[in-house]
Every structure is written in structure tokens, then in C-alpha cells.
Design the sequence.
């Protein structure tokens, strides 16, 4: 079981590293979207600091969605998804492996990039730490929930747009509590409440999303 | 061993086949025949557990495969229309990854030999994207050489292969059946295996007569 899981992770990583454009697209998208705000709103640093948590979170959310519709579609087209489904290992575990790889390749870079962009919008060091922590807990939730949507829209024409419509409403709670935590930190208020809820989202989706995604894949391939 | 009990397959509002019964014992090869759209691929997908049948059940050693799951999947090698090959991995990596996913990890040495045997000598380290259609097919079929699965379900295995490869593949099929393996395959090509019994199953007969 462990061998299969490791092998799948290795495969996903190798494939992504041989085709770097996908990871770079996500990261560049994140950087560009955030950089557009000072240009559109003006260089008033107080305003920028105030909107920074929301801007960074919305940008992270859109960036992680960008690569979602390819999560299963490549495997679907070349037939490796069929082989995953008839593998003797539990499909939910394999799906979890794919989601984990997706997060490491698209979510984690966003977490690592966020301090630079936070500084660009005039955030102070303490709130940047909080921002990174919320992204660290929040982006896996985005990948997990997104995987269910990606499974459901597999093989549907125009699935990319449908996926956004399906998934974005589900991202709202994560967005509210993620950016809310950073705003509280900026205002000097406590952040424990926000973090407990983000943690709860993470654990709930860790348990439920792989099962949901596995079921949706079976339906899509039937 | 493998039993199809009253299988019915419905696609859209068309019934492809209904109340299909057959049993496959170790050491038998079943050649599935039928015109295009008669439900050959659907039947193979149902038998391998990829698709749900409308009615009936598939049994392995007397038990429903939906309940057995692992026990059945471990004994199954399914090679469908799609080769299941990643374009950005090399032939060797593809073979090893595919095997590991099927729960049968093989060493690099074994994989290397299998690829050589199937006629890909010198191309083991090339990314699959530069291989031809037939060569990609061979990478997929190389799994048969290293498989320890009892039941092989092959959907059009001879597609895109040259004469030499077809002959080689026939030998591999023969050897598997002789070792008490089971094979179900579809093909529109003629193939000849000697020394083993080939059973035939015709799908879509009713429509043909009409």
C-alpha cells in the first residue's frame, strides 16, 4: 500500500518537473493578479494594506483553481486513470496521493510566495506570518475540495468553466476565515477562532474529499 | 473461476446484450466476437469492474467481484483501448509504474528485459512521446510479460502491431493459457494459437439476423 502510494507520488512529481510550465503558470498568475491591484487602485499604502489579506487570498484561490481541471483529465485521456481505478489499492488512497501532489506543486509555492507579495502590499511582519499560516492550512482544503469537482466534471465539454462555478461557492468559507484571520491580526485582535475553524475545514475535507473524489471518478468513468 | 451471471448492459436507451451467461475456467481463452457497437468493450469493462452492469453480476471464484474487490483486482490485468502510457515518462518508467500500481512491483532489471523481449531494445530510456503508436502499444503490452495476474482482459491487443509483434504476442498468450491462466480478448484480426482451445462468444447476434 505504501509502495503504491510512494510510486504514485513519485510519478506525479516527475511528470510535473518534466513539464514545468504548469507549476510556473500557477505561480506567475498569483504574482500578476496581486500586482494588478496597486496599479488599479493607486499606490496609497494604507488602502493597500487594508485590502491585502483579501486580495492575496482571492488570488491564491483563483491560482489554485487554475490547474485543477488538469488534475484528472490528463490521466483520463491517456488511460492511466482506468488503471488506477482497477488497481488493487483503495481508490480513495490513490486519489489522496494525487491531491497531495497537486498541493505540493501548486499550493505550497503560493504559501512560499505570499510573504513577498504581502510586503509589496505593505503588510507588516506579524500579519505576514499569520497570512502564511492561514494559506498553509487553507490551500490544502482548496485542493481537496477542488478534487471532488474535478472528478465530477471529468470528460464534460467545457468542464473548466463548470468546475469554477461548482467549486468557487464551496471555497467561500475558507476565504472568509482565511482572510479574516489576517485582518484580525492586522487589527491586533485574536486569531484563534479563525484558525480553529480553518483547521476544522482541513480535517473534515481530509477525511471526506478523497472518498468523494474517488466516488465521482467512478461515476465519470462508468 | 470467472462467471458472468445474467449480465445485461444498457447504454443510453439501447440494450447491448441481456442475460449473458458464461463461465471461464483456468486454461481457457475466450475470443469475444461481434460487430462494431455490439458491446464487446462494454462487456470487458464490466468484467474488469470499471463499469456497472444494468443487471446480473460477475463472479470470481463464486463471489461477486464488487464484494471481493482487492482479491479480484490483484488477479486482473486489463489492457484497454487506451494504452495507459504517460507521454513524459520513459518506456521503462511507464512499465515499472504501471506494474507497481497494479500491486506487482518489479525491479529495473526485470523491466529492462521485458522491454527488450517485446522488441523495444535500445528504446527503454526514451520518453514515450517519441515512440510510435505501435511502440507505445508494446510498452503497454510488456506488462503481460511480467504480470502474475491470472486473468487477462485484452481489448483489441493486436491494434497497431506489426506482423512480428502479433506472432510474438500469440506466443505469450499461449504460454499464459498453458500455465492455467485465463484470457478474454476481442480482436477483428485473424489470430492463430496452437495447442490451446479457443472458445468463442458472439455478441449482437440478434441484430445481425434481423
Sequence:
Amino acid at each position: 500500500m505504501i509502495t503504491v502510494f510512494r510510486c504514485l507520488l513519485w510519478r506525479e512529481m516527475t511528470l510535473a518537473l518534466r513539464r514545468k510550465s504548469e507549476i510556473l503558470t500557477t505561480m506567475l498568475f498569483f504574482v500578476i493578479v496581486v500586482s494588478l491591484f496597486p496599479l488599479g487602485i493607486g499606490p496609497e499604502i494604507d488602502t493597500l494594506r487594508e485590502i491585502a489579506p483579501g486580495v492575496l487570498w482571492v488570488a491564491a484561490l483563483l491560482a489554485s483553481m487554475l490547474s485543477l481541471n488538469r488534475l484528472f483529465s490528463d490521466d483520463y485521456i491517456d488511460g492511466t486513470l482506468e488503471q488506477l481505478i482497477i488497481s488493487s489499492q483503495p481508490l480513495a488512497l490513490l486519489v489522496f496521493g494525487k491531491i497531495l501532489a497537486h498541493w505540493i506543486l501548486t499550493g505550497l509555492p503560493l504559501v512560499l510566495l505570499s510573504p513577498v507579495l504581502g510586503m509589496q502590499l505593505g503588510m507588516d511582519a506579524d500579519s505576514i506570518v499569520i497570512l502564511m499560516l492561514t494559506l498553509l492550512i487553507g490551500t490544502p482544503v482548496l485542493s481537496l475540495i477542488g478534487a471532488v469537482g474535478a472528478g465530477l466534471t471529468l470528460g464534460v465539454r467545457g468542464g473548466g468553466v463548470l468546475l469554477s462555478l461548482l467549486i468557487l461557492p464551496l471555497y467561500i468559507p475558507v476565504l472568509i476565515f482565511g482572510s479574516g484571520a489576517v485582518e484580525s491580526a492586522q487589527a491586533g485582535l485574536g486569531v484563534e477562532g479563525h484558525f480553529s475553524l480553518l483547521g476544522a475545514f482541513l480535517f473534515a475535507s481530509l477525511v471526506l474529499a478523497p472518498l468523494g473524489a474517488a466516488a465521482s471518478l467512478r461515476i465519470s468513468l462508468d | 473461476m470467472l462467471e458472468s451471471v445474467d449480465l445485461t448492459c444498457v447504454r443510453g436507451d439501447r440494450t447491448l446484450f441481456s442475460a449473458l451467461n458464461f463461465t471461464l475456467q483456468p486454461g481457457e481463452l475466450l475470443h469475444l466476437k461481434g460487430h462494431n457497437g455490439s458491446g464487446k468493450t462494454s462487456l470487458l469493462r464490466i468484467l474488469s469492474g470499471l463499469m456497472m452492469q444494468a443487471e446480473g453480476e460477475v463472479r470470481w471464484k463464486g463471489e461477486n467481484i464488487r464484494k471481493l474487490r482487492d482479491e479480484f483486482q490483484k488477479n486482473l490485468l486489463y489492457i484497454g483501448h487506451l494504452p495507459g502510457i504517460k507521454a513524459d515518462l520513459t518506456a521503462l518508467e511507464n512499465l515499472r509504474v504501471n506494474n507497481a500500481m497494479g500491486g506487482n512491483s518489479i525491479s529495473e532489471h526485470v523491466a529492462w528485459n521485458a522491454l527488450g523481449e517485446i522488441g523495444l531494445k535500445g528504446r527503454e530510456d526514451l520518453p514515450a512521446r517519441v515512440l510510435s503508436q505501435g511502440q507505445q502499444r508494446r510498452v503497454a503490452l510488456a506488462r503481460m510479460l511480467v504480470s502474475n495476474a491470472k486473468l487477462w482482459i485484452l481489448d483489441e491487443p493486436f491494434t497497431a502491431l506489426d506482423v512480428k509483434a502479433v506472432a510474438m504476442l500469440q506466443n505469450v498468450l499461449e504460454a499464459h493459457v498453458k500455465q492455467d491462466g485465463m484470457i478474454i480478448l476481442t480482436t477483428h484480426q485473424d489470430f492463430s494459437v496452437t495447442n490451446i482451445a479457443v472458445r468463442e462468444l458472439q455478441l449482437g447476434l440478434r441484430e445481425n439476423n434481423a
Observations:
- The two ends of chain A are 25 Å apart (CA to CA).
- Chain A has a mean pLDDT of 92.
